[in-house]
Amino acid sequence: MSAPTPQNRRRGPSVSSLALAALVAAALLGLLSAVLVTGGPRGATPVLKGQLGTRLTINAPIESRAGQIVTLQIAGAPIASDQVQLVQFGSLSTTTSVHKLDAGSASITIDASHTTHAGLIHWVAVAGSASGNASTMITPGNAVDPVTPLVGPRTVIADGDDFTMVVASPTDEFGNPVADDTRLMTTVERPDGTRTRDDISVNAGIAAQVIASQTRAGRVTVSVTAGDAIGPTTSFDQVAGVPAAFRLSADDTPKTADGFTLHTLETGTLLDQYDNLLPDGINVVFGIEGPQGRTQIDSTVQSGTARANFEAPGLPGVVEITARVSGRTGEPLRIDFDPAVSEVSAAAIVDGSDVKLSIGPVRLIAGGYVPDGTDAIVVDADGAVVAKTGLFRGESTMTVPGEVGDSFEIYVLGKLVRVVVAAGDS
Predict the structure, then answer these.
(1) Are residues 30 and 135 in the same domain?
(2) Radius of gyration for the chain, computed over Cα atoms and rounded to the nearest angstrom
(3) What rounded mean pLDDT belongs to the chain?
(4) Is residue 167 a part of any domain in this protein?
(5) Shared domain check, 133 and 58
(6) What pLDDT was estimated at residue 53?
(7) What does the longest C-alpha to C-alpha distance in the chain come to?
(8) CA nearest 255: which of 322, 315, 332?
(9) How confident is the model at residue 95 (pLDDT cuts 50, 70, 90)?
(10) pTM for this prediction
(11) pLDDT at residue 99 greater than cutoff 90
């Protein structure tokens, strides 16, 4: 049988490629196992460098409670080494210390002040050419006072549908969030005196619970405990929402269109569908529409009702009043304002190139003159306003363009009087 030819012989790795692979692996292993520990601030103990060599053994607890002493057992150091350098890589800081070896071994006690932060600690030890590493998980302790509950929103509608949330983040004595799945208990006391307790669990340092509203208005208190740890009580309010149907009323004083008298409006008692009184401070808008146009007055709920004062119109007629509270409009109130003026007297005479108008006295049906400042409006035959004046003691005098035979209409609080210009004294 002939020897295999290069074409049909199975190729194997060459000597040169094996050598190259070995060199690369050695270099990577050297990089991974080398430990360089800084000696701290300038002037501190020089750095110790561990190279590929003897493997140190570090016996460390897998888990320890925060704030507890941790003991490490180190063995396997070269006999020639008389000290070992230990580096503690904690969750918040790094600590370096140097310890004496006895026959290649050491027992190292880590003070409790170095284990107060929960999380994983990596231990790295270097002694001459030997190095080793281990890890310890520092777990948080039990919750301590205070366990402070936070509630928001602080006001909900007492309708059985609205809700709020309570959140707590209990910590141990060192400020570490307690462990996941730690059980907390919430206590919720309602306005009717009923009390409920629920268990909730910590997840990622936080425990939360949704609290649904009920249908009785009042203050709800909330507290949270974690074992023996307690804290302050917080609260939120259940308040009435949209009111049920309501009516308006006005005072019983005579309703005359004098443009001066103030009248009082009042809503009925504002209750929601569950007979809860609306809270103080809720905005109420009164809309008023009458012979002189439309206006509105803002008010607020006080002791379950809302009030507002409005001025009588200056023209007789029907005034319609509405009130809107939390999106609900009450039943409209209609008030018929009677004429206020019993009579208006006036005279017009030529005065040179103009006309002198004398108005008054103007008297009220209720007696006396109209209030000072009441407007008297003068309109010519074309319907244009040519003058407006305020009355004093029911009277006023003015000059307007015109001539003999011209006619004017004078309005005072809706009362009309017509005058024709007469010739003056010659």
Answers:
(1) yes
(2) 47
(3) 88
(4) yes
(5) yes
(6) 57
(7) 164
(8) 315
(9) very high
(10) 0.70
(11) yes
Q: What is the CATH number of the domain that holds 111?
A: 2.60.40.2470
Total number of residues shown for the chain? 426
* Spatial CB neighbours of 182, under 8 Å, sequence gap ≥ 6: 143, 170, 201, 202, 207, 226
Q: What percent of the chain has pLDDT over 90?
A: 83
Tell me the sheet residues that pair with 206: 203
Mean pLDDT score, 202-231 = 97
- Shared-domain flag, residues 166 and 54: no
* Residue found under tokens 């050419």: 129
How many CB atoms neighbour CB 6 within 10 A?
6
| Residue 95 structure tokens | 């600590």
Asked if residue 123 has pLDDT above 70, the reply is yes
Give residue 425's pLDDT: 63
Last residue of a domain, one of 339, 374, 405: 339
Q: 351: pLDDT confidence band, cut at 50, 70 and 90?
A: confident
Q: Which amino acid is at 389?
A: T
The residue behind tokens 């003026």 is 341
Residues 372, 333 within the same domain: no
Amino acid in position 239: V
> 3-state SS of the chain?
CCCCCCCCCCCCCCHHHHHHHHHHHHHHHHHHHCEECCCCCCCCCCCCEECCCCECEEECCCEEECCCCEEEEEECCCCCCCEEEEEEECCCCEEEEEEECECCEEEEEECHHHCCCCEEEEEEEEECCEEEEEEEEEECCCCCCCCCCEEECCEEECCCCCEEEEEECCECCCCCECCCCCEEEEEEECCCCCEEEEEEECECCEEEEEEECCCCCEEEEEEEEECCECCCCEEEEEECCCCCCCCEEECCCCCEECCCCEEEEEECCCECCCCCECCCCCEEEEEEEECCEEEEEEEECECCECEEEEECCCCCEEEEEEEEECCEECCCEEEEEEECEEEEEEEEEEECCEEEEEEEEEEECCCCECCCCCEEEEECCCCCEEEEEECECCEEEEEEECCCCCEEEEEECCEEEEEECECCCC
What is the number of domains present in the chain? 4
Greater pLDDT, 363 or 35: 363
Report the distance separating Cα 242 and Cα 272, nearest Å. Answer: 6
Domain that holds residue 101: 19-139
End residue of a domain, out of 239, 260, 276: 239
User: Which candidate, 111, 182, 124, 170, places its Cα nearest to that of 144?
Assistant: 170
